Amino acid sequence: MATGILSNLNEAQCEAVTTAADVVQVLAPPGSGKTKTLTARVAYLLAERRLKPWNIIVCTFTVKAANEMKERITKFVGHECAKQLKLGTFHSVALRYLKQYGQHIGLGKDFGIADSSDSKAIVKRIIKKNDFSGDAGGARGRISTQKAKGIDSEQFWKKAKDVEQQEFARIYQEYEETLKASDLLDYDDLLLRCCLLLRVEPACVSNVEALLIDEYQDTNNIQYDLMGLFAQHRNVITIVGDPDQSIYGFRSAEIKNLTRMKEQWPDTLTINLEENYRSSGAILHAAQHIIEQDESRPPKKLQATHTYGQRPVLRKLPSAAAEADWLVAEIQRIQALSGDLLQPNDFAVLLRSAALSRAIETALGREGVPYRMIGGMRFYDRAEVKLLVDYLRVVDAPGNNEAVERIINVPPRRVGEGTVKGLHEEAQSKGVSLWSLVLDVVQGRCKPTTKVTPSTQTGLAKFVDVILSAQKKLASVTAESAPLVNLLQHLITKLSYQDHLKRKFPDEYEARWTNVEELVAQTIEASDPERLTAIVNDGALPSIEGLERRTESVAEDALSLFLANVTLATAGTEKAEQDGETAQQLTISTIHGAKGLEWPVVFIPACYDGSIPHSRADDNDEERRLLYVGMTRAQALLYLSTPLRNSQREEASMSTFLTQPGVAAFFEEHGPGIAIADVRALAKTLRRDCPSDTAIAESKKTLERDEDNYWPLTGEEPFEERAKWDRSRPGDGTWSFSNTRPAAVFS
Ligand code: ATP
Ligand code: MG
């Protein structure tokens, strides 16, 4: 046996790895080692059953998961062998087959792939050409849904019941024709054409000896078909999944695929894994309580292998900004308490939607905590936010040539790149800023040597008008009239920004507009005099020109402060990246993006109704599962929180999932009663040395100073439950929690 494949696996996991059954379903809760088992099975098939790597297909849900899996397999069988596996997302495996055998279904080798913005642009052109109503993004999404259901444009046309459906059928048809004419496939096509290929030419997969799939609960109908087709010659399939973690119903994932599989292959061997190796008993206990609110779900056994540990924290904060400040302070406190054994990369902040990251990013940036975003961009890097911030920068300091260049033709004003470059060089040679040259040109004080056509001249005049009017606005408002909000709103209107975003990002318009609203919310916060003073007094903004300048206008000061704060929010992270400290970054991710991953400490802020469950979600059960997925990413400490007013300053109430009867008993209201011994245990999780006595003494001092913010433990502990969990099997030695009550440690 290749070293270690079966070591560190429990009995049920070993069975799943070594079974001779052809079709195997491993259905098990989060953290029970499904991915670990799947990886071990691949290694086992290679090392023990002597399967050839190129005859094994492994489908994962994300590219990241595929890479991680490959790395783990490499440890068992070596790089040469692992790299020959057909391992990747469904899309990437399908692409590989199409590139190799596409000629059987009339595909050339050089077909291109239409990404989502290409697809949208095509749909938009069709709608315009035919003078149809409806938005391109919506129609594009609908095409994708139909494709996911395996309904092609002909079939849709035949079933179309009314004019609206017929119109859509036409768009769908023309879209398909355009892709064909340009030799393009969209993402859905990769899967569909691969299905077609494998039906027409089954010999392409005659060598496939085993197919393995992770996160099976989130497969859709086409992926199901593809599974059957990949495995059609030998039907050797292993899938792992968890119905409780099905969170892609909104993208046509079919939970029924689990039962469908059993119907298609009645001899399917089902293996249940019941032990959780990831989370403390207390975290599992709380997560379990949430998922059990879904009464239609069959009861399941779940056993903790770690002791009970700290109950998760459920906290209410007055505002989104206060929530972010508390969260960052708590991260710093726990890190200090661990004697810095816990580093930022041991913490994750998981969000229901990406727009929620702004408040957190601002607070992290202010404190210099480095972070990375997975499955999304940092708030201030998002195009729609960056552009408005650039406008504010130019209003504040028009001499900022780079910012002027970035915004001068956005939204489009017929000012070409060549003209801007020419004007920029001309300004430089005259020793003036780009802005003042443009202003002189527009106001007729200067005739540029760079060619400026009449339409460009009009465009430049529009740009100048936007900036001048905004500066006028800024000068005219007072502190009482919330200067920054007024200024930003003025810019948004003047730029017809909402229409611009609708035109430019038809598919993602809503998400992008939500980010703009977030930025507006931030200017509201920044206009709050108390908060401004607090920031300045904190010394977070040491030398801001605007402050020293102390102009007569409160509004101008507020703007400089605001922009300095934005710069600060990004500067900390950029520096960390330059220093090559990427491993030391905290993770911010959507819950969707965190699927399959784990961290010692997890925060889920903004747990309010409208956020989770989301106001636009149709399926509350799916929203609950999403919260469950988020909670079960945590190994040792878990924090859920909600602001009582969201960032739009609307009243928010705690998520309905967290206010059900009995839920409160599973959480702490205040900080966790984490004890030094627990931190030592936590440190073991990371297989680092335990804190030295000096480090412990230091962190204890920090704690004592911080006492107000810390104890007490309130509420009744569910002692009986706790005792039950404590009797569960001890951990496997990778980590465990002591049950020492904090009072005993610090008394
Ligand atoms: P999810 O549903 O969230 O994807 P999963 O079931 O795939 O979870 P894994 O990620 O495979 O779970 O495992 C969770 C953690 O438990 C990992 O850190 C893994 O190394 C550890 N683990 C799994 N099985 C064992 C075991 N038998 N002994 C020790 N640790 C284990
Ligand atoms: Mg997994």
From TrEMBL:
Residues 7-280 form the UvrD-like helicase ATP-binding domain. The keyword Metal-binding does not apply. The lineage of its organism: Eukaryota, Fungi, Dikarya, Ascomycota, Pezizomycotina. ATP binds at residues 28-35. Transmembrane segments: none annotated. It comes from Friedmanniomyces endolithicus. The keyword Isomerase applies. The gene is srs2_1. This is DNA 3'-5' helicase. It catalyses: ATP + H2O = ADP + phosphate + H(+); Couples ATP hydrolysis with the unwinding of duplex DNA by translocating in the 3'-5' direction. One of its GO terms (molecular function) is DNA binding. The chain holds residues 1 to 747 of 983 of the full protein. Keywords: ATP-binding, DNA-binding, Helicase, Hydrolase, Isomerase, Nucleotide-binding.
